[in-house]
Each structure stands twice: as C-alpha cells, then as structure tokens.
Amino acid sequence: MNLGEAKEHLINGLMKEGYLKSPGVVRAFKSVHRETFLPERFRNYAYMDEPLPIGWGQTISAPHMVAIMTELLEPKAKDKVLEIGAGSGYQAAILSKLVKEVWTIEVDSRLAKFAEDNLRAAMVKNVHVLTGDGWMGHKKEAPYDKIIITCATSSLPPPLKKQLKGGGTMLAPVGGYFHQNLIKAEKKGGKLEQRNYGMCVFVPLRRKAD
Ligand code: SAH
C-alpha cells in the first residue's frame, strides 16, 4: 500500500468507527497530508492510527484523537481559534481548513520552528505560530471563539478562561501525568459548563522548555 492508499484506508476507518462525522472535517482530513508534519524517518507510518515522535520528547497525536478533538470543537468558518501545543502543526493545519484563523503557541522554540516549516510546506497561511508558555494564552488576539489545549493540564488555565469569548468552547485533556479526561467547557454567562468525554493520554503541559 502506498501513502495515498494508506491515507484513504485510515480515513475510511475513522469514518466507520465514528471518529470522523461531519463532511467538513472529513474534507480537512483528506486535504492535509500528515506525512508533511513528521520527521522524515517516520513518514512511512503517517497513516497508522498512532501517535508518533516529532523530536525533543514530544509526539504528534494519533489521527483518531485529532478527529475526536476537531469534531468536538465544532469549528465554524468565522472562528478565531487558539491552540496550546503546536507540536508538529498538524492539528492547527486541520483546523485551518475549517476556521478563519488559528493562533498556536509552542513552549519549545525548536518545535515552534518545526511547526512553522511544516505549515509553510503544506502551504497553510491562516495559522500563526507563537513561541511561549501557552498557559498564559495570547491576550493580544483575544477573545477567541474556541481554545484547544493539546497537552495535559492539571486544570483549565485561568488566563485562557478569560480569553475565551462568551458562548465559546474550550477543549482540554485535564488530569495527571499518566492519563487525563477530555473536557469540553462552554462559556455561558461568564461560567464554564464542563462535560467529560472520557479518558485520553497527552504529553504534559510544561511552563518552560527543557
Ligand atoms: N497539536 C500537536 C501535538 C501536541 S504535543 C500536533 O498536532 O502535532 C504537545 C505539545 O505541547 C508539545 O509540542 C509540547 O512541547 C507543547 N507544550 C507543552 N507545554 C506547553 C506550554 N506551556 N505552552 C505551549 N506548548 C506547550
């Protein structure tokens, strides 16, 4: 099986298993090539439904997890989105096809460069990569319609709660080191209404790069 066939097989599988649901998200998965976001030696594994190493101890999430999170975020064409944990840039690239603009923060400047290079190679233009501590968010562009945290956090960061628009949605793996719960929080009347979508495993949010 070549990469193109492997990609089709993976996407069909994700649809059958119910991870990919909406036509827009399916289209985004079809248009973004995951191999563009991987170090060369892992490109042949791009369409296995597994997390893969992207260097400096970090991983690109498994496709089914990107599908779950993208669907839960209910992306809309007018949305301004903030992502915490750019990593490879793949999740941001998927979102870029569905929303107006994405700001993504990466704590490790080497990965921020990796993400930027990958996004450029993928010809994605509406994603802005920032280096810094995502816990603090990015006040300058706030408020955001959606905030997606793609590293494990012990709680929902207060600065991000503030930077979320009224009626907006925040998605985050909340918990400890070994596993977390995928929490979807909706801001209503200044308060966050939370719902748990089950267990997941993400690399931890760090306040500083190693
Ligand atoms: N969304 C990524 C995968 C993220 S892996 C993708 O599609 O490839 C989690 C990333 O979060 C890692 O790159 C890690 O360096 C980063 N990270 C950890 N703590 C952070 C923080 N405080 N602010 C921003 N990024 C952080």
Could you give the topology of this structure?
Blueprint lengths: L2 H14 L6 H9 L20 E4 L2 E3 L2 H11 L6 E5 L5 H7 L4 E6 L2 H13 L5 E5 L12 E6 L8 H6 E12 L4 E9 L2 E10 L10
Parallel strand pairs: 3-4, 3-6, 4-5, 6-7
Antiparallel strand pairs: 1-2, 7-8, 8-9
The structure holds S-adenosyl-L-homocysteine.
Describe the structure.
This protein is an alpha/beta fold and 210 residues long. 29% of the residues lie in helices and 29% in strands. The strands form two sheets. Strands 5-4-3-6-7-8-9 form a seven-stranded mixed sheet. The relative contact order is 0.13. S-adenosyl-L-homocysteine binds next to strand 2, helix 4 and strand 4.
Overview in brief:
The protein has 210 residues and is an alpha/beta fold.
Question: What proportion strand?
Answer: 25-35%
Listing every helix as H and every strand as E from the N terminus to the C terminus, the arrangement reads HHEEHEHEHEEHEEE
**What is the share of helical residues?**
25-40%
Largest β-sheet summary: 7 strands, mixed
Q: What is the number of helices?
A: 6
Please provide the count of β strands: 9
The end-to-end distance, rounded to whole angstroms, is: 39 Å
- Helix/sheet category: alpha/beta
Describe the global form.
globular
| Average pLDDT rating | 97
Gyration radius, in Å: 16 Å
**Strand order within the widest beta sheet:** 5-4-3-6-7-8-9
Which features would summarize this protein structure in a list?
alpha/beta, two-stranded antiparallel ribbon, 210 residues, binds S-adenosyl-L-homocysteine, globular, 7-stranded mixed sheet, 9 strands, 29% helix, single chain
